[in-house]
Design goal:
heterotetramer; C: about 100 residues; mainly alpha; D: about 500 residues; two-stranded antiparallel ribbon; globular
C-alpha cells in the first residue's frame, strides 16, 4: 500500500516535472525528448491505473509513434531552415494566460475531487453481458461489441487522415512515395536494428493481437507495433514504400474499415441491427475483423508518420 | 488513491499543455503541448475509469475503451498538424528559390 | 528451497540496483559524452542483467522465464544500436575535445 | 427517462450515416474518378434516406431510433433522429447534392485523364463531411459525438487548403489548432460527465445531472470547446480566412454545414444532457455573445474589400442568430414561446445553410469569371453574369430576413419569441442585424449593377448548370418562407427537455 503510493507519487512528480520541462524548453528538440520521456512515465501511470490496454497503447502511440513523428518533423524543419513562428504574446498577456490556465487546473482538480462516491459506471453491466460477446477481455468486448460503432468510425477517421495528409503534398510530388526518402544503410546500428527487430516485432504484434480477445492487447497495440517495425525498416532505407497512387497500398488501408462495415451491414440484413454479429459466431467474426483491421490500421499509422510525399533531399 | 492522484496530475497537465499551446510561438512546440494537454485529458478519463472499478474488474472497461479510441484519434490529429507545418515550411522554400 | 531462491533474488536485485546507481552517477559526473554513454550502457545493462537473473527464480513458468530473457536481450540490442548512434552524433557535434 | 426502444424507421438515419462513411473508405482505392461517380450515385439514396426519416418522424410524432448491434444504452450506442435531426439530415443531403453537382466542373475527372491531387482529395473529403454531419445530428452518445466532431474537422481542414496556396495553408493550420483545442476540451467535459453519471447516453443523462461541481466544470469546458468549433465570437478568429480561402464548393459546405454540426451538439448538451440543470445565466451569456457576433460580424462584413471575406464574415454574424434561441427556450420551458424560439433557431440553421451555400457558389462563379473578388472592381457584373448576381441577391434576402424568405420566418419567430418572453433587447439585435446585413448585400449589388466600369468583360458565357445549381439553392432558401409554419412542427418532434 505504502510502496504503491510511493510509486504513484514518484510517477506523478516525474511526469509533472517533465511536462513543465517541455514548456520551459528553449529548443524544440529538448521539448520533444522530454515529451517522449513523459509518455513513457505515463505508460507506467496507466499500469498503476489498472489500464494495461491503455498502457500498451500509450507507450506505442503516445510516446513511440508520436515521438518518431515529431523528431522526424523537427529534423526536416531544421534542415529546411525556416519554421514559421507566430508572435509571442506580451508579458502581461502571458501572465493572464497563465492565470487562466491555473484557474482551469484548479477547477478541474476540484471537479475530480468532487466526483460522486461510490463512482457510477458500467463495470457491472459489462460483467453481466461479457459472456454474450464470447470474449475474455472486457475492453475488447466494449471496443468490438458494445461500442463497435466508435471503433469502426475511428478506423474510418484514420483513412480520412491519410487522405488529408496526402492532400497536403505539393501538386508536383503528390503521386510519389510518402514521406521524405531515406538513404539505404547497409551497415551500422540502424541497419542492425532494421534487420534484427522486425521478425521479433511481428511475432510480438501477432501475439498481442491474438491474446487481445482474452487478455490485455488487441488491434491498436498490435497495429502500432507493426507500424513501428515498418518505420524502422523504412528509416534504414531497406524498403521502398509504394507511391500514393499504388492500388494495393490504398486497398490495404481501406480493407479493414470496409470489411468491418460490410460485416456490420450483414448484421443488419441477418440480425436486423447494424453491427449485430451472427449468434454463435461472435468470436470468430470479431477475430477476423480484428486481424484485417490491425493490418489496415498498421499501414495507416505508418503512412501517417511518413507524411505527405515530398521532394526533400535525403538527410 | 491512485485514481485521485493521477486525476489531479491530469488536471495539472491540462493547464500546462493549454498554457504551452496558447503562448507557444513555434508550431511544432504547440503541437507537442497539444499532446501534453491530450494526455492530461486521458488521465482524467483514466481516473474516472479506475474509480468505477467493480464487479470483478479493477477498473471500468467502458471509459478505458473510450480512451483507447481517443488516443488513436488524437494521434491522427497530430499527424495532420505536423503535415501542415511541414508543408508550410516547404512552401517557404519554394518561395525563396 | 524457496527461501534460498528468495535470498538469491534479493541479492541479485540489490547488486543490480548498485550497478544502476553507479551508472547514473557516471552519467551525471563524467565529463564528456562518450564516457557518460559508456557508464550508461555498461553499468545499466549489467544492472538490468542482474535484475533479470534475480527475477528468474520467481518467474514461475517457462513462458515468463523466456519473457524476462527476451526483455534483457531486446534492451541489449537497443542500447547496442543507440550507443553508437549517439556517439556518432556527438562526434559530429563536438569535434575532438 | 425510460431507456430508448428501437423503431423500425431507425434504419434510415443509421444508413444515412454509414453509407457516406463507407463510400469515403472505398473511395480511396477506387481513385478520384470512381469516387466522383460513387458520390454522385449516392446523392439520391442519401436524400431519400433523409426524406424517409423526416416523413417517419413527422407521421409517427416520435424520434426514429436504432440500437447498434441490438445493445441498448447505457452499455450500447443508439442513433436517435428527432425532428431537428431529420430536418438537418435533409438540409445536409440537399446542400451536399448541390455542391457535388456544382463541383463536377472543378473536380470532375474525365475518363482516362490522370488523377489530380485536388480531385483525389475532394470527393472522399466531401463524403466524410456528409457522414460526419449526419453522425453529429443523430448520434445519441457523447463520445460518438466526439468522433463525429473529429470526422468533421479532419474532412474540413484539408478542404480549406485544397488549392495549396500559402495563405490558405496558414488558415488551415489556425483552423486546425482551434478545432483540436475545441474537441479536446469537449472530451474533457465528457470524462467528467461520465464520472458524475456513469453513462454517456444523452437521453439517459437528461434529468440525471444536478448543479454539482464536476457538472458545472464539464458544461463550461464542453461549451467552450463547441463554441470554438462553431466559431461564435470571440472564438471566430479562424473562420474568415479559412472559409474565404477555400475553393467555392468547399466554402459552401464549410459555412453551410460544418459549423452547424457543433451547434446541434451544443443544443443537445444544454437542452438534453443538462435539461435538469438551471442554466438561464449561462444561456444569457451565450445569447449575448450571439448578439455581439451579429452586430460586429455584420459590421466587419460591411467593411471588407473582398467579396469572399464579406461572405465569410456574414457567416460569423449569421451564426450569432442561432444563439438567440438559448435563453428564449430556457426562459419559459414547455411554453408556446419556447417552441417558437426552438423552431426559429432550427429554421435559421437550415435557411442559412441554403443561403450561404448559394452565396459562396455564386461568389465563386463571379470570382472565377472576373479573375478577382475585389468588390470595388465588380462594376458591370450584372450585365455579364446576371444569374450569379441574382443568386447573391436572393440569398441576401434570406440573410437579411426580408419576407417572404426562410430567413424571415426564422428571424420573425426569434423576434416574436423574444418579445413574448419579455427579453425585448434580443428583438432589437435581430432588427439591427437585419439592417447591417442589408447594408453589405446592397453594397455588393450597387457596385455590380453599375453598368459603366473598368471591368473588361469576360468572354460571355451562357448560364450553365453551375449557375442554375447556385440559383436553385438560393430559391430554396427563399422558398422556405412559403412553407406553412405548421409544417415546421417537424423540428418539435422529440425535442429534448420537453415532456416525452
Amino acid at each position: 500500500m505504502i510502496a504503491g503510493l510511493a510509486v504513484d507519487v514518484l510517477l506523478a512528480a516525474g511526469s509533472l516535472g517533465l511536462a513543465l520541462g517541455v514548456i520551459r524548453a528553449r529548443r524544440v528538440f529538448t521539448a520533444i525528448a522530454l515529451f517522449i520521456a513523459h509518455g513513457l512515465l505515463l505508460a507506467l501511470a496507466w499500469v498503476r491505473l489498472d489500464a494495461l490496454d491503455v498502457a500498451l497503447t500509450e507507450a506505442a502511440i503516445g510516446a513511440g509513434l508520436s515521438g518518431v513523428l515529431l523528431l522526424a518533423a523537427r529534423h526536416r524543419l531544421a534542415r529546411g531552415g525556416s519554421e514559421r513562428t507566430t508572435e509571442a504574446p506580451g508579458r502581461v498577456a502571458t501572465i493572464f494566460i497563465g492565470l487562466g490556465c491555473a484557474c482551469i487546473t484548479v477547477a478541474l482538480g476540484y471537479a475530480v475531487l468532487a466526483l460522486p462516491k461510490p463512482a457510477p459506471g458500467l463495470a457491472a453491466e459489462v460483467a453481466a453481458n461479457l459472456a454474450a460477446t464470447e470474449l475474455g477481455n472486457p475492453v475488447t468486448g466494449v471496443l468490438m461489441v458494445f461500442r463497435g460503432l466508435d471503433t469502426l468510425l475511428e478506423a474510418a477517421v484514420l483513412v480520412l487522415a491519410v487522405i488529408g495528409v496526402w492532400s497536403l503534398a505539393p501538386d508536383a510530388t503528390w503521386r510519389g512515395t510518402p514521406g521524405a526518402p531515406w538513404p539505404a544503410v547497409t551497415d551500422g546500428p540502424r541497419a542492425l536494428l532494421a534487420r534484427l527487430l522486425p521478425p521479433i516485432g511481428i511475432v510480438v504484434a501477432v501475439h498481442i493481437l491474438w491474446v487481445g480477445a482474452d487478455a490485455p492487447g488487441g488491434k491498436f497495440q498490435a497495429a502500432a507495433i507493426l507500424a513501428a517495425m515498418g518505420l524502422l525498416v523504412w528509416f534504414a532505407g531497406l524498403v521502398r514504400v509504394p507511391p500514393t497512387a499504388s492500388w494495393p497500398l490504398r486497398a490495404t488501408i481501406a480493407a479493414g474499415p470496409a470489411l468491418f462495415m460490410a460485416i456490420g451491414l450483414a448484421g443488419l440484413a441477418v440480425e436486423g441491427a447494424f453491427l449485430a454479429y451472427p449468434e454463435g459466431l461472435v468470436k470468430p467474426t470479431i477475430l477476423i475483423v480484428e486481424f484485417v483491421l490491425a493490418a489496415s490500421v498498421a499501414a495507416a499509422l505508418a503512412l501517417l508518420v511518413m507524411g505527405a510525399p515530398s521532394r526533400d533531399a535525403p538527410p | 488513491m491512485s485514481a485521485t492522484l493521477f486525476g489531479l496530475l491530469g488536471a495539472a497537465l491540462v493547464g500546462i499543455g493549454l498554457f504551452g499551446m496558447l503562448v507557444g510561438t513555434q508550431p511544432l512546440m504547440r503541437i507537442v503541448c497539444f499532446n501534453l494537454l491530450g494526455s492530461g485529458v486521458f488521465l482524467v478519463f483514466g481516473a474516472v475509469a479506475r474509480r468505477g472499478g467493480g464487479a470483478g474488474f479493477a477498473a471500468d472497461p467502458v471509459p478505458q475503451a473510450v480512451i483507447l479510441t481517443g488516443l488513436v484519434v488524437a494521434f491522427a490529429a497530430t499527424t495532420l498538424a505536423v503535415a501542415l507545418v511541414l508543408r508550410l515550411a516547404g512552401n517557404e522554400d519554394e518561395d525563396r528559390h | 528451497m524457496s527461501l534460498l531462491a528468495d535470498a538469491f533474488t534479493i541479492l541479485a536485485i540489490l547488486a543490480g540496483i548498485g550497478f544502476f546507481a553507479a551508472g547514473t552517477a557516471g552519467l551525471l559526473r563524467f565529463p564528456d559524452t562518450a564516457s557518460r554513454l559508456h557508464a550508461l550502457t555498461k553499468a545499466d545493462h549489467l544492472g538490468l542483467g542482474l535484475v533479470v537473473i534475480g527475477l528468474l527464480p520467481q518467474a514461475g513458468s517457462l513462458a515468463n522465464t523466456l519473457r524476462l530473457l527476451a526483455v534483457w536481450a531486446l534492451v541489449l540490442v537497443a542500447s547496442a544500436a543507440a550507443g553508437p548512434m549517439l556517439a556518432t552524433l556527438t562526434r559530429r557535434a563536438e569535434p575532438e575535445t | 427517462m425510460p431507456p430508448l426502444a428501437a423503431t423500425g424507421s431507425g434504419l434510415l438515419p443509421m444508413l444515412a450515416v454509414v453509407l457516406p462513411v463507407l463510400a469515403m473508405v472505398v473511395a480511396l482505392p477506387l481513385g478520384a474518378r470512381g469516387a466522383e461517380r460513387m458520390t454522385i450515385a449516392l446523392l439520391l439514396p442519401g436524400f431519400l434516406l433523409a426524406l424517409g426519416t423526416a416523413i417517419a418522424v413527422q407521421s409517427s410524432g416520435a424520434p426514429a431510433i436504432h440500437l447498434l448491434g441490438h445493445w441498448s444504452p447505457p452499455l450500447g450506442l443508439a442513433f436517435r433522429a428527432d425532428g431537428l435531426a431529420a430536418a438537418m439530415l435533409l438540409a445536409a443531403a440537399i446542400v451536399i447534392a448541390a455542391v457535388a453537382l456544382f463541383a463536377r466542373g472543378g473536380f470532375g475527372v474525365r475518363s482516362g485523364a490522370p488523377e489530380t491531387r485536388t480531385a483525389f482529395a475532394f470527393w472522399p473529403l466531401l463524403l466524410a463531411l456528409w457522414g460526419g454531419i449526419n453522425l453529429a445530428v443523430v448520434a445519441n452518445d457523447l463520445f460518438t459525438l466526439y468522433v463525429a466532431l473529429e470526422l468533421l474537422t479532419f474532412a474540413a481542414m484539408p478542404l480549406v487548403c485544397l488549392e495549396g496556396k500559402r495563405e490558405t495553408i496558414e488558415a488551415a493550420l489556425r483552423y486546425l489548432m482551434f478545432a483540436l483545442l475545441g474537441s479536446v476540451l469537449y472530451l474533457l467535459g465528457v470524462a467528467l460527465i461520465y464520472g458524475s453519471a456513469g453513462t454517456l447516453d444523452i437521453t439517459l443523462l437528461s434529468g440525471r445531472l444536478g448543479l454539482e461541481a464536476p457538472v458545472i466544470v464539464a458544461a463550461a469546458l464542453m461549451t467552450a470547446g463547441l463554441l470554438a468549433k462553431t466559431a461564435l465570437l470571440p472564438l471566430h478568429l479562424w473562420l474568415p480566412s479559412a472559409h474565404a480561402g477555400a475553393p467555392a464548393a468547399a466554402s459552401a459546405v464549410l459555412s453551410a454545414l460544418v459549423v452547424k454540426g457543433s451547434f446541434v451538439i451544443l443544443v443537445r448538451l444544454w437542452f438534453g444532457v443538462l435539461a435538469a440543470t438551471p442554466s438561464l445565466p449561462a444561456m444569457q451569456i451565450l445569447a449575448g455573445l450571439g448578439a455581439a457576433a451579429i452586430l460586429l460580424g455584420s459590421a466587419a462584413a460591411l467593411a471588407q474589400p473582398r467579396l469572399k471575406l464579406l461572405v465569410a464574415y456574414s457567416t460569423v454574424a449569421q451564426i450569432g442568430y442561432l444563439f438567440l434561441m438559448f435563453p428564449l427556450v430556457a426562459g419559459m420551458p414547455d411554453s408556446e414561446t419556447a417552441a417558437k424560439a426552438w423552431t426559429g433557431g432550427s429554421v435559421q440553421a437550415i435557411s442559412h445553410a441554403f443561403a450561404k451555400a448559394a452565396m459562396f457558389l455564386a461568389v465563386g462563379l463571379m470570382a472565377a469569371r472576373v479573375g478577382h473578388d475585389r468588390i470595388a472592381d465588380l462594376a458591370g457584373t450584372a450585365r455579364h453574369m446576371p444569374v450569379p448576381l441574382l443568386t447573391f441577391g436572393l440569398a441576401g434576402l434570406t440573410l437579411m430576413g426580408v419576407p417572404p424568405s426562410g430567413g424571415f420566418a426564422a428571424k420573425w419567430l426569434l423576434l416574436s419569441a423574444a418579445i413574448e418572453a419579455g427579453q425585448w433587447w434580443w428583438a432589437l439585435v435581430v432588427l439591427g442585424g437585419g439592417l447591417l446585413t442589408g447594408g453589405y448585400v446592397y453594397r455588393v449589388l450597387s457596385v455590380s449593377l453599375t453598368s459603366s466600369g473598368a471591368l473588361a468583360p469576360p468572354a460571355p458565357q451562357p448560364p450553365g448548370t453551375p449557375d442554375a445549381i447556385a440559383l436553385g439553392l438560393a430559391v430554396l432558401s427563399v422558398a422556405l418562407g412559403f412553407v406553412p409554419l405548421a409544417s415546421f412542427g417537424l423540428v418539435q418532434v422529440g425535442r429534448m427537455g420537453l415532456a416525452p
